[in-house]
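The data are quoted verbatim here:
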Amino acid sequence: MTTETEEASRESISKGARQERTAVSDPVSFSGDSLVLDRATSACRDGDFKAFFDFFVRADTVRQVFTAPTVVVTRYWTDGRPPERTETPRDAFRSFPIRVEDVYWRPAASVTEAGEDEYLLLEFDESQGGVFAVSWTRVRYDGQTEGGDDLGDALLPDGHPLQMVSLPDGKLVFRPFEDCWRLVADERFDRLPNN
């Protein structure tokens, strides 16, 4: 990108962030989180979704700015019940499922059945039009490691080996918006035991 194009993109993202803050009328100040917000908008400018997502998970301010006014929350059941779908206003959306601890993805408090020894495996999928889906699966590690940040092989919370075809526990959907992305949907998949 040229410097002029980069500056126009930065202004567009900053303007969108300011408009989102105004629309939310939330008392949280940008001053304490301005660095992380700048880094998130820089990741947007660079088209680096994974870097943007990392800032999104780590900072409440980034989540507030880059969450749609309404998040579609859907719970899917594997026992034949129909899905439950609600539209949750951004200010009331408190069930974000992912947090970071050290260098690891961990279940947030909103994943109520999560244990102390649980982690998350994430899978990033980009579809047409720049829509990203981040699937997350709760796992435990077997501890068979050679050291470092490696925790061993991933197992499902019930101790069964993780299969690549296993149903994830959830999926977050981000759509392109004003030179960046914003969270528009949170899907949860409630598995039956041994499923």
